[in-house]
Amino acid sequence: MGKVVMYGSVSVDGFVADENDQPGALFDWLTSGDVSLDESGVLKVSQTSHDYIRPYWDQIGVTIVGRHVFDLTDGWDGKPPGGIDHVVAVSHRPAPEGRDPEAPFYFVDSIEAAVSKAQELAGDRLVEVAAGDVGGQVLAAGLVDEVRMDVAPVVFGSGKRYFGSVDAQHQLEDPDVVIQGNRVLHLRYPVRR
């Protein structure tokens, strides 16, 4: 089975969005360079960021998100983001009515079920867990192997926390990747077991 990786862009003070779910300058690094990160040509990063992020994105088989993120993005119009094969959404509500039944989205009611379904779908590819409440719950359950952060040089002061409502201490190993790109610091921490 592939690794489970908690991932997201984060402010220096630990937030993935402001109080109104707006990412503000967190994603400025995705348009601060001259190397295309995807085929759209919209995302352009530094060569350093490209060489780190593109191989990571290519390894992701499934992304796990919470229902809140799914609803905020309007289910990405039925197409998983970034060329990912499947999305597993954690929700205590049924799947939205009127959605395309062929879209590769799965709705489950617990983080354990989400990780199990995601690993089944991903095979030996990575399972990405979006940072925030669901990511924090998966970390707290001991199901995350690695934490990846794209730290943006912005301070929010308050908002939606990277680790959600985690209220216990969790040990990470020393970072095994520290890469500076334009407007971003890429960090990767193995989770201590």
TrEMBL record:
SUPFAM superfamilies hit by this protein: Dihydrofolate reductase-like
Chain ranges passing through the membrane: none
Top-level lineage group: Bacteria
Domain Bacterial bifunctional deaminase-reductase C-terminal: 111-177
Name assigned to this protein: Dihydrofolate reductase family protein
Organism: Kineosporia mesophila
